[in-house]
Amino acid sequence: MTRSCRIRRRHLLQLAAAPWFAGAARAQPAAAASDALARIKGRGRLTVAVYHAMPPFHVEGKGIDVEIAAALARALGVEASMLPFPAGENMEDDLRNMVWRGHYLGFGPADVMMHVPVDRPLMAASPRVQIFAPYYRDQVVIARDRQKYPELASLDQLKGGRIAVPGQSLAGWLLIGAEGGRYREQLATKWRDGTEAAMALQRGEFEAAAGHASELESVLGREPRWVIEPLPLPQARNGWAVGLAVKKEAVDLAQALQGAVNGLASGGQLQQIFAAAGVRWRAP
């Protein structure tokens, strides 16, 4: 299943259209203390749910989320055990399957789930979980050759050039609908995700590529030839933050993980993990 199916269109459009709200990282629901952390330390293992095949965050056991999960487990004094899972129809399904109930196929729930959008509507719709500790802010961007296009204030400057973009993604929906479909004929939308679109640009097959910043930067970010900037559309101005989710009653675990994320951010480890993947860390 493609990354675009993992985080649904409606939810990403809400996130892209609204600015990040202050204080989300500090929000903790009022709940009785639990012994979740003690149980994890007792067995010596933190089970972490990660999306299956989500470059650059998780691909075949490697990726940014895997590295962050390992760092969080070390901060708790235990080992990390990855639990990859396929996305459901929406984020509420994923939280139910991987955080508070378990999947109907018999796996899960995990102790903590990675890459959960941290925003008020999802929190309100998910009373069985805590969503907290944002560790990255992603954004819809477009990449181009610096020499061919020194500036790109408008898509009109591409002068009919072809654009690679995964059609079933936020970037694809924004471009397909931009200005009443004005650029639709310029789009090649067959790609599974933004990394594939970026590779097509890298091969010289297109004038530009669009997708998530994390996707494009992981392919093109180490080469100064490419400019990667926010998509020049009003709907793409705001990014979205992703963080962690645990059961609502796992207050002790949430507090420990929040402290661990804070430590990784203040100590520069988050920046280093993203940089190793070619991605610029964006503080949420």
Give a quick summary of the entry.
This protein is α/β, with parallel strands linked by helices and 284 residues long. 35% of the residues lie in helices and 20% in strands.
Structure explained in plain terms:
By secondary structure, the chain is of the alpha/beta class. The protein has two domains: 3-138 and 239-276, Periplasmic binding protein-like II (D-Maltodextrin-Binding Protein, domain 2); 140-236, D-Maltodextrin-Binding Protein, domain 2. The chain has eleven helices and ten strands. The strands form two sheets. A five-stranded mixed β-sheet has the order 2-1-3-10-4, sandwiched between helices. A five-stranded mixed β-sheet has the order 7-6-8-5-9, sandwiched between helices. α4 (64-76) crosses α10 (251-266) and α8 (194-202) packs parallel to α9 (213-220). It starts with a helix and ends in an 8-residue tail after the last helix. 46% of the residues are buried.
What features would you highlight for this structure?
alpha/beta, D-Maltodextrin-Binding Protein, domain 2, 2 domains, 5-stranded mixed sheet, elongated
Q: Main sheet?
A: 5 strands, mixed
How many distinct helices?
11
CATH domain topology of the largest domain: D-Maltodextrin-Binding Protein, domain 2
Q: What is the assigned CATH homologous superfamily of the largest domain?
A: Periplasmic binding protein-like II
Number of domains: 2
Q: Tell me the distance between the termini.
A: 27 Å
CATH second-level architecture of the largest domain:
3-Layer(aba) Sandwich
Tell me the name of the CATH class of the largest domain: Alpha Beta
Unreliable runs, pLDDT <50, ≥5 residues? 1-10, 17-33
Q: Going across the biggest sheet, name each strand in turn.
A: 2-1-3-10-4
Mean pLDDT: 88
